[in-house]
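Model it.
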Amino acid sequence: MLGVDYLTSENRAEIRSFIESWTDYLAQARREDWLECWADDATLMPPGGPRIEGLKGLEGFAANFEMHGTYRFEDWCYAGSGDLAVVCNRIILEGEVKISAEDRLFDQIIVLRRISGDWKIQAVIFTATSL
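Modeled.
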């Protein structure tokens, strides 16, 4: 567990579904849907790349992103209270991915805020990891 967790099982299921949809949107090049998941002042810290801030920066990232292969998640952890949640998980790239085995596995930390009743991504940090 990440720490203090006042999230209900329903909150965790809702957040997991949200993160899976958010990832699917990017993988399927549904850029507008993907951007809708972010807070206006969000930050993305991709592995090996510069920090990306705000919706304009995220829009540029999404425009240049290409998904090759498939992915799956493992090791979900949740913490949160009220309108704030933090999720950690591992994303594993699979299939016809033209990258090395070392670049197929990432841990991610996702900070979410509930804004006007909807979860939005405030920050995402990816870290490359190994098997």
